[in-house]
Amino acid sequence: MLKSKKRVTMLLDKGIGLRSQRDLLDTAAPYITQVKIGWGIGNVLPEEILKEKIALYREVGIIVSPGGTALEKAILEDKIDQFSLWLRESGFDAVEVSNGVVKLDEDEKCDLIRDFNKKGFIVLSEVGSKDPLRDHSISIKDRVEATRAELDAGSQKVIVEAREGGKGIGFFDKSGSVISHKISEFLECVDWRDIIFEAPLKNQQVFFIKKIGVDVNLGNIAHDEILSLETLRRGLRGDTLKISG
Question: Most buried of 83, 90, 148, 205, CB within 10 angstroms?
């Protein structure tokens, strides 16, 4: 279960080939906690490739979910039951519940979290919108209330939206710089251990490690940045040399 992990490093798999995936696992598997197969990529991969991809991760104890967009597509098409079956048949052990695009109120979102828990999946949820204007209109108070509600409903971790690029969304400005006062305000009201901060850029990773510590949960890490992040956590790069973990 994800809650038992010391810290989370969530890899964003954008459809890397199986050979590259095997190479990645040979060198970096111990440093990957969870994989998100981004967006709806799992829906366009050949079925057998997807199943093998998931199996390779799970063989080494890595949790695997599709991106939240895959579920949002199922919501739009009223195909939740078919989506649940696809999750199970493909081999996913986790699911991400988000409302980054679709209109889904908090009660409906929490109902989905409870439903997927009952079906035996590890459930993560995501707070935030993929639309920058809509996302920046979400107050810290609303983010905190959503986070608490989703944890109470059974989400094991709540992901803070930052998308693949980490710019102009969530707690980052258009250049990808951290809006530190917003993070400080958010962290006054939630336990950081319950949060996965999407932080695809190095400066963001450095910020969170310095502010929270080496065990901060970080997500949307590119496959070729896993070892780089681990060195940051361990104080093996100049940016965090005085920190060790």
Answer: 205
Q: Is the pTM of this model over 0.90?
A: yes
The span from the CA of 219 to the CA of 131, in Å, is: 19
The residue written with tokens 């490093």 in the block is 9
Cα 238 off chain centre by: 27
- pLDDT number for residue 3: 57
Q: What does the alpha-carbon distance between residue 196 and residue 220 come to, in Å, rounded to a whole number?
A: 10
Tokens 């905190």 correspond to what residue?
144
Q: What is the mean pLDDT of residues 215-220?
A: 98
Residue with tokens 């992901």: 159
